[in-house]
Amino acid sequence: MSTAFTERTQTPFRFDIVGSFLRPDYLRKAREEYEAGKIDREALRQTEDRAIRELVEKQKKAGLPVITDGEFRRATWHLDFMWGFDGVGHSATKTGLPFHGEAAMIDDTYLTGKVSLSGEHPFVEHFRFLKALEDENTVAKQTIPAPAQFLEQMILPGLIENTKKYYDDIDELVHDIAEGYKKVIRDLYDAGCRNLQFDDCSWGMCVDPNACRIFDTDEAGLDRVMEQLLEINNLAIEGKPEDLVINTHVCRGNFHSTWASSGAYDRVAEYLFARENVNAYYLEYDDERSGGFEPLKEVSDGKMVVLGLITTKSPELEDKEEVIRRIHEAAEYIPLDRLCLSPQCGFASCEIGNKLTEEEQWKKIALVGEIAREVWGR
User: Fold this and answer.
1) How far apart are CA 131 and CA 294, in angstroms?
2) Order of strands across the sheet with 245-250?
3) Other CB atoms closer than 10 Å to residue 41's CB: what's the count?
4) For 121-173, how does the pLDDT look when each residue is reduced to its tens digit (9 = 90+)?
């Protein structure tokens, strides 16, 4: 493949993306018709296939070295993945998660038994479709919620009581989720995946000033929670193939241009940056809620950092020179050759998408590419 801005042939790239894109209107209409019983699953799949092919062509035209399926086959960035496991149920009784300015309405998702994975996860077939669209200039990336995100979903107040029906010992739940992820990782690898991304809001919640209340614990208890989050991610990664890259994207919530949590990385740096066994971190840095760059000095040797300095929450284009200035500010704590650039998050973590148009979305992507060329060259 081409060596755009780097000799690397796997993620992260100097010019990179997080993963999700705004759904075209015809895809959203098809999903509504499917849910209303007006079209069958095959008709929906064909529409998804068309939308993904068109999206990949747009990504290639934009010059991106990495392609994703935009998460076009999902309702949400994380829950659809969990529904692919045995022992996980969901209902259309919508939960209004407390985002700032708007409630994120998503399906209730909970345990119905022990967590396991008896067959192939549906996302593996999704990846095969994307993999076939690679060319000599692009590599395909699969995004899935982090194991920590799966665990967090089941242990938060309001859900932990149900979880305890099946797991007296949370360590057993940690083990079962990690084992399920190991199977998904093996199957994705066998399907040709060499670039996997864990999307993880759990660390974003841990840095929030209200983290202890969110997890219904005290500071010592929050430390134990973070140890569990670190442990489950590392357990899932343990034994992965040598040539499989696994990276983490840390998010503070991304629903219809709103956010869920706030806080600098200082509180989690010694866990996440120093001890999580991933290759790179995609980090939100689009506004003051993410704090400063000083915690980046905790990133262990050899790991890359992708600075999410371009927001997906607003159509307004950032000032190029200001973004370049911030990249060099970050380089005071981690070498410039270990830095990359991307939007701070996806453009549509849920089907509803953020508050910008597709044209504005691609202008954001173009700006990331322009800055990457200027900072790192070809």
Assistant:
1) 37
2) 142-145, 195-200, 245-250, 280-284, 304-310, 339-343
3) 8
4) 999 999 999 999 999 999 999 999 999 999 999 998 888 999 999 999 999 99
Kindly state whether residue 26 falls inside one of the protein's structural domains.
Answer: no
Report if residue 317 sits inside a domain: yes
How many domains are contained in the chain? 1
Q: Is residue 51 part of a domain?
A: no
Name the token pair of 57.
């062509």
Q: Which CATH number characterizes residue 213's domain? A: 3.20.20.210
Helix (H, G, I), strand (E, B) or coil at 3: coil
CA 347 to the chain's CA centroid: 11
The domain in which residue 263 lies consists of 61-376
Distance CA 196, CA 288 (A): 28
How far is the CA of 170 from the CAs of 155, 190, 211, 228, in angstroms? 8, 30, 19, 9
Q: Tell whether 163 is covered by a domain.
A: yes
Query: pLDDT tens for residues 61-97?
Result: 999 999 999 999 998 888 999 999 999 999 876 554 5
**How does strand 142-145 pair with strand 195-200?**
parallel
Cα separation values, 110 from 163, 198, 251, 340, 367, Å: 8, 20, 22, 36, 40
Measured distance CA(332)–CA(280) in Å, rounded: 18
